[in-house]
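Our collaborator T.R. sent over the components below with a one-line note: 'Predict the complex.' Nothing else. No constraints on interfaces, no templates requested, no preferences about which chain binds where. So this is a plain run: every listed entity goes in together, and whatever single assembly comes back becomes the starting point for the next discussion.
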Amino acid sequence: MSSVSSHPQSLKRHGISRRQLYENLFLVCGFMATLIGILMMLALVASLAHDGIARIAPDFFANFPSRHSEKAGILAAWVGSLLVILVTALTSIPIGIAAAVYLEEYAGQNWLTEIIEINVANLAGVPSIIYGLLALGLFVYQFGFGNSILTAGLTLALLILPIIIVATREAIRSIPSSLRDAAYAMGATRWRMIADHLLPYSSPGILTGVIIGLSRAIGETAPLITIGALTFIAFLPPAPVQTEFPFISFAWLGSPFTVMPIQMFNWVSRPDPAFQQNAAAAGLVLLLMTLAMNGFAIALRYRLRKSLVW
Amino acid sequence: MNTATARTRPDPLPNPMAIDSIKIAARQIEVYYGSKRALHGIDLDIYAKSVTALIGPSGCGKSTFLRCINRMNDTIATCRTTGEVLLDGENIYDSAVDVVRLRARVGMVFQKPNPFPKSIYDNVAYGPRIHGIAKSRAQLDEIVQESLERASLWKEVKDRLNDLGTGLSGGQQQRLCIARAIAVSPEVILMDEPCSSLDPIATAKVEELIGELMENYTIIIVTHSMQQAARVSQRTAFFHLGDLVEVGDTEKIFTNPQDERTHGYITGRFG
Amino acid sequence: MSLPSNFARRRHRQKIQEWVIENLLFIAGSLSVLITFAILWVLIYESVQFFSTVSIIEFLTGTEWTPLFANPHYGILPLLSGTFVSTLVALIVAIPLGLTAAIYLSEFAPSGLRETVKPCLELLSGVPTVVYGYFALLIVTPALQKTIPDLPGFNLLSAGIVIGIMIVPYISSVSEDALRSVPQTLRDGSLALGASRFETALKVVFPAAFSGVAAGVVLGLSRAVGETMVVAIAAGLQPNLTLDPREPAATITAYIVQVALGDLPHGSLQYQTIFAAGLALVTLTLVFNLAAHMLRRRYRERY
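Returned assembly:
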């Protein structure tokens, strides 16, 4: 039987073997592949900044869109984004946390629970534009909400619901059962244990999921176009807070609107390079906002994992 | 650090062909895991074409020492080794040494059988393939068959070489791992408690195999079973708390140990 | 110490409270099932109406998609080809990058590097897709035009490349988890035979983790199929039955956007087309998600 070592040969290397060469080559490629994230991010920021930074000025934030590129601004867009996200947050956070609490603390090991869990997993993989179609058929026409901020907020809430549910479940799961037992031993009912102990302890993890979800919602375009968000809005929705009785108005919920990513989409679709500069500026604002939110959430989760002291 | 009585010149081996031929010589081997010292200055000679058993209570360092011989400790990040291990007179810890070549000459069988999730054929053919040993498919077939025969597994698997290696029973898996190790024609085979996860029948088969393999390979076996050491080995080394306490002819170690600690372990007073 | 006198009354109130809360939570939990049903209902309802006018055969086999023309055709093949080509380009970019990164991070990288790189890859998946679209149209396409002459301003190639980079985190993260969970004893067995770390990674660890890795790839595939804005911005909105990525074309998703941008009377046939297109899309992504789920389950069973 022939072999590597039919005569004892030296163990010492003779130069670089071919296998060692392949390994070294792979190490280089592998390292570069992992850098793709950083490189891409830098490329995005650099190109947007290069193209659009000239346009970033106070009037950019304070102006409505206009046919004249130098005067066009994102006022309607960022106000719209803000209001839509408000609706999204107010809807998705309670429902998401409630659903997660149910699945983790109340649901039994039966087929119904499994169906719910399969659905949550499935919804996370549904393309965002499908949520737009759902909202179009259901919210816009069936319920009659029209293409309004309310519809937009609800659509995005449905979209990010799986994200919040999954993040909350993970946060709750990481609480050791000894803490629950301590609460029960004091005579707390299940809900008291959840409200007084479980949720407060898992709030950093929940917060992380919420931030990631909201940052995703801010950047979503396709579902909102589908429900009919207009791309040229030269007015602001009625303010939620008014100076006269009853001080709080809900008229803004029914108002037509636009959001930041749609504004950027509109400008980028125009052949005029001047508008592309506006698009780059809007994109820069949007990107920095989402990066800041995501970065914050990741840092929060990282610090959480390190400082877990039970 | 050895006790004064440990380093005695061993008696001549039963196999006259292997007298005085030292295959592996360990010199002042010390192993650190981080700052904790696991082996204290081990000096040990291993004779060619024989079976040497390493025994001792758990945590005494025998597996750590075994893993020094094929430098598997290198894969553990916190592990540091000083000293020399000479294979046919060449120090394997020399900086110019290619670990890949070393491991082609010194094979290892692990405590829990670890066949790859590949076919039986591919498991045995893995080593020859990566070292480019076989020049043709026919040659590879030959190597696979011979390795399985030497591992006493051929008759049981010859009709199902394409079945998954992980589908065999525990004892068969371990013999497959032995065949896999043999396929690259090593000179030394290291066995780390190879029977500890096997039932008595499978264990007996593997021990019988070791007796056959001894004629062609140098075998070092770590075992927690003194009976097994007595059955399969010619020389035995007793480790305790990171020291090599005593080494000698197996029969002598078990009937007339020199060191008190050896005596204590063998009579079951501890470990 | 004895219990306070109103204890029984308090307990009774508490029990009612608990019951109410549990049911509220259950409703929240089952909302996800309702959403799935709602999606299917809306899509099927409108599609059924659509298919009462247009035959399914024409829909599935027709080669022209011109529902907004005077002489409309309703063959979805051009949209499918657009989706197919952009996804294919994306996978050609993402699979090598994602797998190389995953193997490197799992088998070779020091843990400090792994901790820094993983969040960066996560950040990549948080970038708004319009920004990716901008990048594809105004940076990647001009750069490609320098090497590929006659490359039109709208093309599937740029869109595909950018989508590929976008889905790298999906592939690399799932694959890396799969690779890391291969037991160390398999690696030891390979190393002990004299294999190098790279050979071990390629010939033992990767095959062992294969179904987990496949799940990651299918996940990325599903994401690429559902992508909208990058193709809407960079590949144009003109349906075009082609397999050449250098041409402009519309995907299923881009078509829906195009129609939504215009004026659509509710209930018209054109309105219904977007739901039919949406149904086709959901079917595709559902199949992929199911496949990924089953692959992942099969992988977990082995270990």
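Summary for T.R.: Chain C has two domains: 7-53, 66-302.
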